[in-house]
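Reply to dn_fold:

You asked what the input looked like. This is it:
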Amino acid sequence: MRILVTGATGFVGQHLIKELLTTDHAITITTSKEEKIKNFNFYSKVSIAVIDLDNINTSINYFEFANKPDLVIHLAWQGLPNYQQLFHFEKNLNQHYIFLKNLIENGLKDLAVTGTCFEYGLAEGCLSEDIITDPKNTYALAKDTLRKFLEQLQTKQSFQLKWIRLFYMYGSGQNPNSLLSQLEKSLDNGDTIFNMSGGEQERDYLPVEKVGQYIKAIALQNKINGIINCCSGKPLKIIDLVEDFMKKKNEKIHLNKGHYPYPQDEPMSFWGDDTKLKKILEDE
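and this is what came back:
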């Protein structure tokens, strides 16, 4: 099988490529400039398609240009983690839809795209894929709209769509502004105090290595399509995540809980329903 992956050099993408390279499939990745990826350890093991997702050219047949992939796994999305910026809706949405539509109209039959748990909006508790979405930030609105565009495209074109809704992730390569990255920096600096919220929020967390495994499993099958939560299926308090992280590092720091208020644009407690995911993993 020929697989095209966008966003291969990102936080999730690097771990997905590592997983895909354990298979016998031929992997092609997109990049706006090949020089950007020459230092990645997978560079010599994949083919390269130079495609600038900021400047999609509709006169190009991207399906042929990328050597007619049997499957596309679309992870790319510019400008994260600036979730409230209008460019998600004003630019990214249009460019990504045009690119994916171009692939599909020229022959692509199998597409997997990563979405976000933020599509659920302020819904609380265990979130199943059939909940009506109600995104509260611009990034989630753009992602949710892209999914709806692709679902409408399915009424005109025949292709499989797996919409992989990502929840919270941590691990090697995560954004330096993420909670655990900031905590690790404070520990490395020898700080005595770490400012945080009250820590009672419940979220659904997975190590990014596991996310890479799950995306591979979801993308390579076609028994279950549509929206699929990529999650642990379990709520975890942020304070427990932080304390477990320090325990594993055998480090201590005073946690100044309550320094930051709880965010108003996120529910206090939510996690993913992993029923569909479990079925996919059982059938691997």
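The mean pLDDT is 95.
Hope that clears it up.
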